[in-house]
Design brief:
By secondary structure, this protein is of the alpha+beta class. The protein is 30% helix and 25% strand. The longest helix has 48 residues. Pfam families: PilW.
């Protein structure tokens, strides 16, 4: 009897250890997946945003079927697209989400392909004016790419200009953006951001002679593990009020500040 009792105690302890190990493994998987997702999307967005405002009309790879001098002026003055800038898709533009909803970000640059990897009818390794849109739909961070010349009404749509979006990352609860503005007078020519504003304040800043030279991006992602936590997580992203997620899953916030070096150099040049 004593041996049986000891055996049951030992067996119970072993079972408890196994259960504990399984819980720990699930937790570790959840933490790892959340970290991996967050690092991936922040690194991807950073690499793409670093090119915002790029336009080199002397590049031998640049397609010159349109007036590239005029296009250079347009891109330099519209690194961040606001609604009403294009003859086609007039509503396309960066928008501040209402009541804590995710923001929409639309950017301009010269590149070989859009954010989906499409060349939009141009030959491989030929650069063109790219417009990329980033937004959250059904808890997925997505992007859509456009030929800026098509949007300006300068050419017909070609290639993958059906403008279907692609998913960059699943399980994104929130995507927030603020914009760092500068003016040469207050920064003594350094073109560093003097403050960060939301999309609905960009036009007024431009009207006041200020320029966008940086972005702040923030996302909240959910891990793909079935692990739950005792309390629902709460977050405060950038300019937004604090919010609490809808379930007890494992969530994590990621933020980054990106200097738009092309715009910073452009502002410094006084062009």
């Amino acid at each position: 009897m004593i041996s049986m009792a000891l055996g049951l105690i030992i067996a119970g302890a072993v079972v408890q250890v196994m259960v504990s190990n399984q819980v720990t493994e699930k937790l570790n998987r959840g933490i790892a997946s959340t970290q991996e997702s967050g690092r991936y999307i922040i690194n991807r967005l950073r690499s793409e945003m670093l090119m915002v405002g790029l336009y080199d009309q002397l590049s031998p790879q640049l397609n010159n079927d349109v007036d590239i001098v005029n296009e250079n002026v347009f891109v330099r003055n519209n690194p961040i697209i606001l609604p009403g800038k294009f003859a086609v898709r007039n509503q396309l533009g960066s928008v501040q989400g209402i009541d804590g909803a995710s923001d929409k970000l639309v950017v301009s640059l010269q590149g070989f392909q859009d954010c989906r990897g499409y060349t939009l009818g141009y030959p491989d390794q030929e650069e063109f004016y790219v417009v990329n849109e980033y937004f959250v739909d059904d808890n997925k961070l997505k992007c859509t790419g456009f030929d800026g010349r098509y949007l300006r009404g300068l050419k017909a749509a070609e290639g993958h200009n059906a403008h279907n979006s692609v998913t960059l990352l699943d399980d994104v609860v929130s995507f927030q953006v603020t914009y760092g503005i500068t003016d040469l007078e207050s920064t003594q020519g350094s073109a560093i951001p003097i403050r960060f504003i939301t999309a609905d304040g960009i036009q007024n800043s431009i009207n006041d002679g200020q320029s966008i030279v940086a972005l702040r991006l923030a996302v909240v992602v959910k891990g793909d593990s079935e692990i739950t936590v005792d309390q629902k997580a709460s977050f405060k992203l950038l300019n937004e009020d604090s919010f609490t997620v809808s379930d007890n899953g494992l969530y994590k916030a990621f933020e980054t500040t990106i200097t738009l070096r092309n715009m910073k150099n452009f502002v410094r040049s006084g062009a």
